[in-house]
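Hi team,

As requested, here is the filled-out complex form for the adenosine-5'-triphosphate run. I kept the field names the same as last time so the parser does not choke. Let me know if anything looks off before we queue the next batch.

— J.
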Amino acid sequence: MAKKEQTPENTLFRDIIAHAKEYGFVYPSSEIYEGLQAVYDYGPYGAELKKNIKELWWNTMTRFNDDIVGLDSAIFMHPDTWKASGHIESFNDPMIDNKDSKKRYRADVLLEEKAAEYENNGEQEKADALLKKTGQLLEAEDLEAVRELIIAEDIKCPISGTANWTEVRQFNLMFSTQIGSVSDGSGKIYLRPETAQGIFVNFLNVQKTARMKVPFGIAQIGKAFRNEIVARQFIFRMREFEQMEMQFFVRPGEEMEWYEKWRDARLKWHKAIGIAEEDLRLHEHEKLAHYANAAVDVEYKFPFGFKEVEGIHSRTDFDLKSHQEVSKKKLQYFDPEVGKNYIPYVVETSVGADRLFLMLFCSAFKNEETGEGDKVKTRTYLKLHPALAPVKAAILPLTKKDGLPEKGQEIYKSLKGAFNVVYEEAASIGKRYTRQDLIGTPFCIAVDHQTLEDNTVTIRHRDSTEQERMPITELESYITKATSFNRIYELLQ
Ligand code: ATP
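And here is what came back:
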């Protein structure tokens, strides 16, 4: 039986998952019942971090850009939506089962993993050729040839270690349920597999009521559901997840210009939130979805390799046109500048809030060695951008006596209206610093005897662990400035 190799990469990923659980970021869903595969809950610090990620994205889209407005459409939609969008017909993944282990895999993912293996061994040409071939076969929907390729590449099931594969079949990823009390199937509806369609069906409502002129965009954050076949890698691939999508409506013929603009803008955004340039790359699609004429992924170097975080797609007029056909309602725009009616083209940016969370968490997770000889210690901390960190500052009285807790409480109360701060007096100051490092708090404010004399505190910086003295009166403006989204916006100019 083939065992999963213990590489430093998957040890690191295991540590990251354990850290996320232990320090209140992400728990398996309904854990007391042994969990539910590929479904997760966010703990107190995870919920704060995710809320900050969503708020930053929302504000960048709707405030930073004057030509983008927001929307919050329902998860349930008329079933014809999914006929028009092509999801009923073709929202499929090619799956293959191993007859010995009875495990199911995505055929394309098995081949992509093989290509990544070639790439890691320095066989770039082989990797590129395999990806190209895979793309061509999937494009031609030649599932028999996909199976043959898996066998020719000697790909084995990691559980059974055999290549005893079934044929490749298409599997629809949408979850369905019933609306109302009908039980004959006529009330069948779907849980949306993407938020985009809520934007398309509301295109004219938004354009008219918000008095928008093409080119303009609509941004939305919301839950999406996919019955994923390969449900591993923690919150990378979930069955219930959150998307942050922006559909930008443009004049036909101008879509490539906008596509390039959004591709560059989104890559810049990922760098601005603190992701290292060398850990990001763009990956042009070999196989285009049925609706697209250009598509690129922003990929991040996760501990398990470079993988998609965000997709930027030029969707042509496919969606609006097919909604117009199926609904028999005109979805055209009269452009006063050119004096013509047309169906706009769409460029979309689509990023998963959970995948973004995982990227930030992996990139922030630091295990650093300090000291020398026998005194070497490992310091673990989360180097999150201060604007995204769940807790901005911790107020820590040095001791539990001499009036220090009272002074600490006074500072805590004066700051808690402005941002998320915590107050802690239990345990040694060193232990309390460590606890804050582990959840990524950028500032620790220690209240000591000198504070009572001159109203100054020490402020400790998470990344350098350096401390400086600062008057209490300056704390609020200092922390506000350091944790403001403006620091990110400045990098986007
Ligand atoms: P993949 O190839 O990884 O399945 P996709 O190309 O199907 O992703 P899109 O349909 O383009 O993904 O969705 C846009 C974004 O939504 C992705 O870039 C990702 O961040 C997020 N996303 C998609 N599926 C999931 C999922 N199952 N769990 C978490 N996030 C997801």
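Two things worth flagging: Residues 44-62 form the longest helix (19 residues). The CA atoms of residues 245 and 350 lie 4 Å apart.

Thanks,
J.
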